[in-house]
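Duplicate of #3305? Posting structure anyway:
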């Protein structure tokens, strides 16, 4: 079980809710950033990509100034890097259920060979995966995708920021606990969980092409295009969109409004898909009567 939790923790450390396939060398980026403020509070909202190619230049003078002026950092969820298996243990509390069908029976016939291959590469026996709810099996198998595409978990925006704020002895907070984040997956209808698992089995070349498109629009800060491309897969499943996007954005909208009652400057860094589109955090804040200023 310890070896299994270690593999699970590796996948979870790499990305909490979505994977980012390896992309080609990208030009210097200027990702979108907003400012929500009142007379004594400033909140910078920065859209991230959880994993990036090592050579991606995404920092700008405006971003650096925002980071320096922020007294703390808030991300989607914090995985304890000194004990990543603790996050995997939280997942396992929700992941195991009795009387589940075989995992192979939970994917279409044309996906079964791919599932068998990915499971073999993961090193997790199929008999173990069979005991997991479909969303959890998908999470574990993501580790194979990361390894085959040569992704370095340390290359993501959040990890870079966490290292920076930690070195400066600035607090790092989270919008969701590990358990809360897993709960959004755990409460998905089975059909939506299977869509998630099937996406893990997609051809890596297809994933690379899709991610290159995402990286391009993120790089130039094209918010409209981000709204269309970052959440494209969610559009095919209303349940995935509701649980993984709209519900979470609504929760974060409330958190941000409460944070405005506390003086000071903070940086909130979340996946760029949460800050673009009709159901974005930005749109929800504006509908609530708040003025959010684009500063990059």
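Output from current build:
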């Amino acid at each position: 079980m310890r070896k299994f939790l270690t593999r699970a923790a590796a996948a979870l450390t790499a990305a909490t809710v979505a994977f980012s396939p390896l992309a080609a060398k990208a030009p210097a980026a200027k990702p979108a950033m907003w400012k929500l403020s009142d007379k004594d509070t400033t909140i910078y909202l920065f859209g991230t990509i959880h994993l990036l190619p090592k050579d991606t230049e995404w920092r700008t003078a405006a971003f650096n100034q925002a980071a320096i002026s922020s007294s703390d950092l808030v991300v989607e969820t914090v995985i304890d890097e000194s004990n990543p298996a603790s996050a995997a243990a939280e997942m396992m509390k929700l992941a195991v259920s009795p009387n589940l069908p075989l995992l192979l029976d939970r994917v279409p016939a044309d996906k079964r060979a791919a599932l068998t291959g990915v499971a073999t590469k993961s090193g997790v026996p199929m008999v173990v995966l069979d005991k997991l709810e479909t969303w959890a099996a998908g999470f574990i198998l993501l580790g194979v995708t990361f390894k085959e595409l040569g992704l370095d978990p340390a290359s993501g925006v959040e990890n870079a920021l966490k290292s920076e704020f930690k070195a400066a002895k600035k607090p790092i907070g989270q919008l969701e606990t590990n358990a809360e984040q897993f709960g959004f997956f755990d409460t998905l209808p089975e059909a939506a969980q299977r869509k998630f698992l099937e996406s893990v089995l997609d051809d890596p070349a297809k994933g690379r092409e899709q991610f290159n498109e995402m990286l391009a629009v993120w790089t130039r800060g094209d918010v409209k295009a981000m709204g269309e491309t970052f959440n494209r897969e969610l559009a095919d499943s209303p349940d995935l969109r509701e649980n993984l996007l709209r519900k979470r954005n609504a929760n974060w909208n409330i958190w941000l409004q409460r944070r405005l009652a506390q003086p000071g400057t903070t940086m909130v860094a979340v996946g760029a898909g949460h800050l673009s589109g009709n159901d974005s955090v930005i749109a929800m804040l504006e509908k609530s009567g708040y003025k959010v200023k684009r500063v990059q």
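Confirmed duplicate; merging threads. The CA atoms of residues 217 and 226 lie 6 Å apart. Strands lie at 33-37, 41-48, 72-75, 172-174, 264-271, 292-294.
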